[in-house]
User: What shape does this take?
Amino acid sequence: MPVVGQISREIQKPHLEILGGSKLAGEVKIGGAKNSALVLMTASLLTEEKITLNNIPNLTDVRGMQEILLAMGVNCEQKSDLLELHAKQILNSAPPYELVNGLRASFFCIGPLLGRLGQAKIPLPGGCRIGARPVSEHIKGLKALGAIVSVEHGVVKASVPGIDKRLKGASIVLDCPSVGATETILMAAVLAQGTTTIENAAQEPEVQDLAEMLNTMGARISGVGGTTITITGVKQLHGCTYTAIPDRIEAGTFLIAAAITRSTLRISSVIPGHLKAIIQKLRDCGCKIKTYETSITIAADEINSVDITTQPYPGFPTDLQAPFMALLTTAKGTSVVTEKIYENRMQHVPELQRMGASIRLQTNTAVIEGIPQLSAAPVSGGDLRSTAAIVLASMAAKGTSTVNGLNHLDRGYSGLEKKLNSVGGHIQRKD
Assistant: This one.
């Protein structure tokens, strides 16, 4: 726990001041999916032609990916949520360490670079410190496709032997259904010679989004959304215009915001089918939810305890574990939350405890005894989703909380406080 002087220094950083206790009402429009946008951007490396992406959110991670692509010679132009990318010539297959180090999604560049150029040199990725998240599954898949891969001094070097520098199709079985590894192999295999199969593939909507864009570019991919994906390699891909899916994690965050403030809210521009797990748990808590073609309404009054265990899609998403735990701190009864995806994703627990939450933590399992109301406090998020969790907790707390960690929050939410204020929140950003 920080000492008083440390807390005082933290408050001087950019932070949010949140007055808790307000009811929310109205409609929130959800933006494009961060986790889709980043990988769709790297897919632009697979063609010499222009790629136009719609529904791309204004996030620090998106801007960071643009800097990485620019460093490799890709022309990037963004206007509002439209982004144009043109990798007519790739001038550098080794993006600089200082750009890659802070953005985990930068590692996705390795697949397209190997597929198109036959070589890549990518520093091991950074990002939120929520666990090891090794790239061993990525590397295993690339080796199966014929790449020679080595890791030296924190840099992954990969090349394709032979005169044609072309990867070869292969049968790949993932040890776990890794989203990142599935996406890396997809992008590497679309230009490979022959057919590739990925077994135990990730089923997440973002993987489906990437495959749909690649098929629009001329790839031949089938089976996405199931556990086995088949890719028949083609010689080249062409440009396209594509719209990223809505952000299911942002949508889930606003559903939880309505629940924790015991409010009624409409969430629009969403795909309800992507949110089945979170919707079911909110219903189990006592929320009344109706789904429509592109929107969801939620009404919350008394919240009851539930147990959740994070799982790969279509299970409960790890990215909503922290926000949902914030809700359960104010639920009636005892809840158990078990994190099965990342080993260091309980960074929000001490901050929620600072606000009065009753949580017992043992490794990656938290037992939460609900209390009637949280109390405002100076708190700080240690990663993207833990910061979102304490923002939601602050909205339900008595008094005014100071929330630090905006460098994390802005990686995954575009104008979160503005959207919350538009439906009744009282949040000020102090820069």
Remarks:
- The two ends are 24 Å apart (CA to CA).
- The first helix runs from residue 4 to 11.
- The domain at 4-31+246-430 is CATH 3.65.10.10 (UDP-n-acetylglucosamine1-carboxyvinyl-transferase; Chain).
